TrEMBL record:
CDD domains: LDLa, MAM. Residues 16-176, 178-334, 371-523, 569-717, 754-928, 993-1071, 1073-1168 form the MAM domain. The keyword Disulfide bond applies. Keywords: Disulfide bond, Receptor. It comes from Portunus trituberculatus (Swimming crab). The gene is MLRP2_2. This is MAM and LDL-receptor class A domain-containing protein 2. PANTHER family: APICAL ENDOSOMAL GLYCOPROTEIN PRECURSOR (PTHR23282), MAM DOMAIN-CONTAINING PROTEIN (PTHR23282:SF101). It holds the Pfam family MAM. It comes from the Eukaryota. GO terms for cellular component: membrane. Disulfide bonds join C343-C361, C355-C370, C537-C555, C549-C564, C756-C771. InterPro entries: ConA-like_dom_sf (IPR013320), LDL_receptor-like_sf (IPR036055), LDLR_class-A_CS (IPR023415), LDrepeatLR_classA_rpt (IPR002172), MAM_dom (IPR000998), MAM_domain-containing (IPR051560).
């Protein structure tokens, strides 16, 4: 690791290729001054017997440029000059040349308008007659300004035939010669015999069971390698020749070999130099069904070729494969150097078992110095990566001087300035991590803050010396720590994390990271018992049957992704075609790292080198016609970044273009998405149909990417293209606004901020149709599954919930070790909605299959800083009853989403077909313009009611649960606190009664306010001084729309304001004779009447003050049903025989001609 070299991530520019097939020669011209006696000729192999085939086309008829010396004298010169090149700071020219004799040489010259004098770059020849690849580096110093390349031939004899083809100019540095991972092409390695080496992926390799099932570069079935196959009667041989290159210093050649078969022949690795040809390595026979590394040391040589010569065996199945050829300066380290890790107890484990997310050493030290780190004790194996060309003044440093109150961030990694030559973009790199499982997630905390431009932090992973793959970019400045939760997915080879800081250069700046964690990354464990509808993997793990061949490695060894020939229209886009899908030209099939927006990695191989479909504007994708099918399942992966104005319509359409199934997803969150989301749908239809995806992008700052399409064998595909529904690429008539559904010729347009704002602004209300309120009968209502592929939400019919092929996995894929929790999480996210009004509440109905899932509803703010608003756990039980969950969200000034998250902890197999079902999700009272109401309010706080916490105060009332009752309370601290509980707007009223109970303690007060648009009227004020609950009845009115507010104040830690039993009803309060005996005011006008009386009535509560046989006294009052309510009682302790008591009202007049009804409640107790 001391010589670790790190390359910047490559965003490859478009290369310029000239294959000389066209008459204009791509702008190349003949040199015509007096020095040049003849010209290069454009021709083909059919014109000349000296050449067998064109390099571009591989046949006799392809065109190339050549020089034929037979018609000219020795010393004659021909020059072919490229067009002018300007503004390219560094360049690499690759080309293929052919020489028929040792006297045939090709010179490459550079002409610069800055210096005027041409310079000779190199002279090329070859000791054999075949096309040879070559690269020429053009350094920044040599290509300043405008320049041209010249390919020059000077005749030395009449035998010096020279040809040139496929000139490629790349405006970037040349890669290391010979190096090749065979993912995109063969990197200037050339076949030289009729029997050929083939560059392809494992699914195309013949002799299944003999060929490598995965390439070495990506470790997946979708990567590519070079292979030779022979099972013919004749014994075949093939040779692969490298480009010409120079070895300036002693170097190490490394390549990975796979040789397996009935009787495998011989592979010879040869070096071809001026001194002759030398066999560097010879391998014979089967090496087993695995990749083996071969390392060979090369000495200095000015002109060098390598060849791979393979010889088959007569009548036997032979497969020889090669991958990841790498030439590096320095001696070879050897395959077995540092091959074991020494545990503290003296035992040894292979290095491949360190940092593999499960401990093999007894004390866990093999997982101690890995990527997961809180930086409190050390850097856990992370280290600085320095390069010689960096010349600014920033570096990463472990900071330990934080305040303990800032825990867990009192120790972290931070970027600081330093004098001297350090790092321009300082990086730290983790120790080598082992491959991850599909469910792996990276989390970390980071802080970015600056007084100038926003700083940034980039997270990459690097493997095998290839270009780094960008995983995440954070660039939102905030004084608070931000949380990253990023699904990593399956990384199939060992790798390093690299974290890079980009400074803004401001004087005051913070770039820090902390709490790096990797969860659910270990490989799956074998299944003890195979659950129903599960299949067994080669490694004895298991997976749900519907996950087979869906481009997700659910096994950990890709065995669930093997034998997929029966799955039609399966497409990873790695081979450069659409696999039968009809894709509009607006889509780009591109290398992931070349995209303008994330994700900068594809889904198939999970690297920047992988390929995907991406569009930045509206486009369509259609399948061929599918015959009538039952349970035809369709899978794909998608990612959307950069815009809040994207719609994806997935329609299943019959031959008459009638839509028989529709799934629409609208995206309203303006952010970058760095991971893929899985989508699946099942269709059963008794007539032919086809799948049509329509992507609508109303903002040029958006990108929609797709990858890994697949259908199940139940989908029977018929060749032929359906008649597409009407589609136009003309601009949206609403431009950057939302277009409502309407039958009018003139469109109805509304601003996008009026979509999902809880108000129906479109004539048909379709602006609110996909905004989270749904019964799931027609569609998902805008909800999206953000789960990993092993445990997820699906929309199904109730009758299908018990079908084996419509289940959510009930088994975890993690290993249950002490390093990880055996869990899986399924997340269902609402669309972005808001802002919200005061009473906003989210509700749903849910049903749990067993006690195991942990179900939580959470509301989150959107944007780069995602803050939790409120969260509500829901209790699951196995009684299979529908229950309602309600979560109060309240007034929100910004947009937000709601997530429904089910977390499953697995210890044993559970024979369940589904875990959690939800239905009838709804946002209620969420509009910021809710109509005023006259509905009565009766609030005991035992369940949600229509009094709401205000967001304009400094504190909240909290719900208190006592032994007998629930109430709300504001409790003080050392600071002044104000809490407001208020109603929604209410209609004007000429008479309403407000009743409530209150309790005030310590330094606190309560104020009741009648709030109107133009004025606030305080209708009640009380301060502390009461030792018991008090009851208030207020007769109020309002000529305008109003709200009632309960304003609690505390100014010390002993202050407390509590409220309970609030009623707001239309009409007057009860007349004076109505009495609950809880009020000490004049509202209760019942008095003791002592004339002729010998016993007094008294106020009491519970069984206090009952001195005679208290066990018979009432424990609760009748009004409130609690021990704290009051009542009138007689204490008849002792012998009270014959004694009399009177409770007398004031004089009253009846209110109706027929009189009034008098009612009271009584309780008698005695002991005989």
């Amino acid at each position: 690791m001391n010589e670790f070299a790190m390359n910047d991530p490559v965003h490859r520019p478009i290369r310029q290729l000239c294959d000389f097939e066209a008459a204009d020669l791509c702008g190349f011209t003949q040199r015509e001054d007096d020095t040049y006696a003849f010209d290069w000729t454009q021709g083909s192999a059919s014109d000349h017997q000296g050449l067998l085939n064109d390099h571009t086309t591989g046949d006799y008829y392809g065109q190339y440029m050549y020089v034929d010396p037979k018609q000219y004298t020795v010393g004659a010169v021909a020059g072919l000059v490229s067009p002018d090149v300007d503004g390219v700071p560094e360049a690499c020219v690759a080309f293929n040349y052919y020489t028929s004799h040792k006297d045939g040489t090709l010179e490459v010259w550079l002409h610069s308008k800055e210096t005027h004098d041409p310079s000779l770059l190199n002279i090329y020849s070859a000791p054999f007659q075949t096309w040879i690849g070559a690269r020429q580096v053009l350094l920044p110093v040599s290509v300043a300004g405008v320049w041209q390349l010249e390919f020059r031939v000077t005749l030395k004899s009449s035998n010096g035939f020279v040809a040139l083809d496929d000139v490629i100019l790349s405006p970037d540095a040349c890669p290391t010669p010979v190096n090749c991972d065979f993912e995109a092409n063969s990197c200037l390695w050339e076949n030289t015999k009729p029997a050929k080496w083939t560059n392809d992926d494992p699914s195309q390799a013949p002799a299944y069971g003999y060929a490598p099932p995965y390439d070495h570069t990506t470790g997946t079935p979708y990567g590519h390698y070079l292979y030779f196959y022979d099972n013919s009667v004749d014994e075949l041989s093939a040779t692969m020749l490298s480009e010409v290159f120079a070895v300036d210093k002693s170097s190490c050649l490394s390549l990975w070999i796979h040789m397996y078969g009935d009787k495998v022949g011989t592979l010879q690795i040869k070096s071809i130099e001026a001194e002759g040809t030398f066999v560097l390595k010879k391998l014979t026979g089967s090496l087993g069904l695995e990749w083996h590394q071969v390392q060979i040391e090369l000495g200095e040589s000015p002109q060098h070729w390598l060849s791979l010569d393979v010889q088959g065996v007569h009548g036997q199945t032979n497969v020889v494969a090669v991958d990841d050829i790498d030439l590096s300066v320095g001696l070879c380290a050897g395959n077995n150097s540092f091959g074991y890790f020494l545990c503290d107890d003296g035992s040894k484990i292979p290095m491949s078992q360190t940092c593999d997310y499960q401990s093999q050493c007894e004390s866990g030290e093999d997982e101690r110095w890995c990527a997961g780190c809180d930086f409190s004790d050390d850097m856990c194996g992370w280290r600085m990566v320095e390069t010689g060309q960096d010349s600014s003044h920033y570096w990463w440093r472990r900071y330990t001087g934080g305040d303990p109150e800032d825990s867990p961030h009192d120790a972290c990694m931070t970027v600081e300035s330093k004098d001297g030559v350090v790092l321009n973009k300082p990086r730290i790199i983790s120790r080598l991590q082992q491959p991850t499982f599909e469910t792996c997630t990276l989390s970390m905390d980071y802080k970015l803050q600056s007084t100038g431009a926003d700083p940034a932090i980039n997270v990459y992973y690097e493997h095998g010396g290839s270009d780094m793959t960008l995983l995440f970019t954070g660039q939102s400045s905030s004084p608070d720590w931000q949380k990253l939760m990023l699904p990593l997915g399956r990384i199939s080879t060992a790798f390093n994390f690299v974290i890079e800081a980009i400074s803004s250069g401001a004087d005051e700046e913070t770039i820090s990271l902390d709490q790096v964690k990797l969860t659910k990354c270990a490989s799956p464990v074998p299944c003890i018992d195979l659950p129903p509808s599960y299949l067994l993997c080669d490694n004895k793990a298991c997976y749900p049957a519907e996950a087979k061949c869906d481009f997700t490695d659910d096994c950990g060894d890709y065995s669930d992704e093997a034998l997929c020939d029966d799955y039609p229209l399966r497409c990873s886009f790695e081979d450069g075609d659409y696999c039968g899908w009809d894709v509009s030209d607006i889509f780009q099939l591109t290398e992931a790292r070349s995209s303008k927006m994330p994700p900068y990695r594809d889904h198939t191989v999970n690297t920047g080198d992988g390929h995907m479909l991406i569009t930045y504007s509206s486009a369509t994708i259609m399948s061929p016609i599918i015959q009538a099918s039952t349970n035809c399942q369709f899978h794909l992966y998608y990612a959307i970044s950069g815009s809040s104005k994207v719609t994806i319509d997935l329609n299943v359409v019959d031959s008459a273009t009638n839509i028989i199934f529709k799934q629409t997803s609208k995206h309203g969150e303006d952010k970058l998405v760095f991971h893929w989301t899985h989508f699946s749908a099942s269709v059963s239809y008794d007539k032919p149909f086809f799948i049509h995806m329509w992507v609508t992008v109303d903002d040029r700052g958006a990108a929609v990417a797709f990858d890994d399409f697949s259908l199940t064998p139940e989908c029977i595909v018929t060749p032929g293209t359906p008649t597409p529904p009407p589609f136009s690429t003309t601009p949206n008539p609403c431009h950057d606004q939302f277009m409502c559904n309407t039958e009018n010729e003139m469109p109805t347009c509304i601003p996008y901020d009026q979509v999902c704002d809880f108000e129906k602004n479109c004539p048909e209300g379709d602006d609110e149709s996909l905004c989270g309120t749904t019964d799931f009968e027609a569609d998902m209502g805008g909800w999206q599954d953000l789960s990993d592929a092993t445990y997820s939400w699906s929309r199904i019919k109730a009758s299908d919930a018990y079908y084996p092929n419509c289940t959510a996995p009930n088994a975890d894929h993690t290993n249950g070790s002490t390093q990880e929790s055996p869990e899986s999480t399924a997340i269902l996210s609402s669309p972005v909605v808001g802002p919200a009004g005061l009473g906003c509440t989210f509700s749903l109905w849910y049903n749990c299959k067993d006690d195991d899932p942990l179900l939580v509803i959470t509301a989150w703010t959107t944007g780069d800083l995602k803050d939790k608003i409120v969260s509500l756990p829901l209790r699951c039980s196995s009684n299979q009853e529908w229950r309602q969950g309600q979560m109060f969200i309240g007034e929100q000034d910004q947009l937000f989403t709601v997530e429904v998250k089910s977390t499953k902890y697995f210890t044993t197999w559970i024979p369940t077909q589904f875990d959690v079902t939800i239905d009838d999700t709804a946002f209620t009272l969420c509009s910021t313009r809710e109509d005023a109401t006259k509905e009565d309010i009766k609030c005991t706080f035992s369940k949600p009611c229509h009094f709401y916490q205000s967001h304009r105060d400094t504190a909240d009332y909290v719900l208190v649960t006592s032994k007998y009752d629930k109430y709300v309370s504001l409790r003080g601290d050392e600071n002044e606190r104000i809490a407001v509980l208020e109603t929604l707007p209410r209609q004007a009223s000429f008479g309403f009664c407000l009743s409530f109970r209150y309790l005030i303690k310590g330094q606190a007060s309560l104020e009741v306010v009648n709030s109107q648009a133009t004025m606030n009227e305080t209708v009640f004020v009380r301060k502390s001084g009461y030792l018991d609950w008090q009851t208030v009845h207020l007769n109020l009115y309002s000529s305008k729309t109003y709200q009632i507010e309960f304003v609690g104040h505390t100014s010390a830690s002993n202050g407390e304001v509590s409220l309970d039993d609030i009623e707001l009803v239309e009409g007057l309060c009860p007349p004076p004779l109505t009495c609950t005996f809880d009020d000490d005011s004049d509202n209760c006008l019942w008095k003791n009447y002592f004339t002729g009386a010998s016993l007094p009535w008294s106020i009491g509560r519970g069984n206090e003050n009952i001195t005679s046989e208290p066990e018979y006294a009432s424990l609760v009052d009748h009004s409130w049903g609690t021990p704290f309510g009051h009542y009138q009682y007689l204490n008849i302790a002792g012998d009270q025989s014959g004694k009399v008591a009177f409770l007398k009202s004031t004089e009253i007049a009846t209110t109706t001609p027929d009189g009034d009804c008098f009612q009271f409640w009584f309780y008698l107790y005695s002991k005989v």
